[in-house]
Request: fold
Amino acid sequence: MTVTLALCAAAALAQEPAGEMFDPDAPPLVAEPSALDERFQVTRLDGGPEEMAPPFAPMFVTGQLDNGLTVSVLAAPDMPVVATQVWVQVGSAHEAPSEAGFAHLFEHLMFGATTRYDKEAYSRHHTTHGGNENAYTAFDNTVYISEIGPQWHDPVLVFEADRMVNLVLDAENLANEQKIVTEELRLRTENNPLARLLSPALEALFGEHPYGHSPAGTKADIANADLELVKKFYDGYYHPANMHLVVVGPVDAPTVVRRAEALFGPTEKQRLVPPEVPALAGWDFPERVTLTEDVPPIKVAGAVYVGPTRQDPDYWAWKVMVEMLAGGELDRFREELVTERGKAVEAATIAEELRAGGILAFGSINLPFRSQRGAFKHLHAAVDGLDGADWLSQANLDTARRRLLRDTLEARYYAADMADAIGQAWSWQGDPSLALGGATEAIEAVTLAQVRTAWQTWVMDATPVELFVKRGKAQEVEP
Reply:
């Protein structure tokens, strides 16, 4: 070991991620060549035996530490950067009424000071060394993202482990982040009529379902955040057993696993298990929702269908079906309603995937003289017109399959995309290894008969929720 590498190791083991101590020309740390224990599944990606793997061999390692943290490492020597993602299995869908907006609030709080490092340390490390850091909040997860060169990756692990246990939560920090989040909501939501519609639309559509409020929260939610409840949320939900650490790039997988175990280590936190989110299929939705908003003089009609979860046998047929409908340059529903029938100004197919199920919506934009009844009449007629149309063909299936396979294959060249795929596979399917080829196999196996069955089951035989938006008082829901 060179003197430079020894200094790097000493700095890392001391958990002092000072960027200036890391020589960009020094090789990353490499663990002793002993095999990982039975807690970890090791897959060599170059066909060699695991017990003879040289340093930085391409491999996928996944398993769970004693504290409950799931760790997945994809060692990819040909990638130029290391992507690190921490998936916290807590999103807006897991918030209690008294915690509304907390998931989004924590996305901001987690970039604050800890008992060891100042508020800017994490971002400064990335900025100094040409990296990138970010985070996002969704219904089902909160995800923290990093991309940086391999020479400066170890401090990222130190920072991540530190902020998961040593975050400073006091009245001053909370008040500061409340102001920041409130301003973000003002700029991104209150200043956009369509964005303003999201919260009342979710509440009206989903009702008491956990997806019934926006991941962004509201200004009232953020203003009402109680410090003691915030601390409880952090101590209980930001527990290793609710997290997945994903690392992808030119790293030595056993080294990363051992570093994670040393850094994250035992915890004194008492875990709160995130509540289960009911599947959308079978949920009692309203027949119709009418909203008013300060929009241009148009009327918007939508038919919203729910779809399967990733665990459902129909999932891959559903996914291919959605791609066949609107995944390319041609939106089949728009073609039917606008081009062929001329019954709307504009139309679109919108698809969304959530852990509790898929969403498929057909929407139309109509001139103000169109009645609500007329808008839905033409919309449903266009959907019915898709049944048995030429889009349900083997040729279209083959084309859609190639597009999906292209997207899957392209992701393998980008560390961040692969980290995201691994995180999603763990979060939604319980098996991170499915990101390494399971999707390809499943897509290739979908048949036209399965697609037709999915279309019949989830669309033609289903009753959609009708959503209607017209000009009027902002954010009002009509009975």
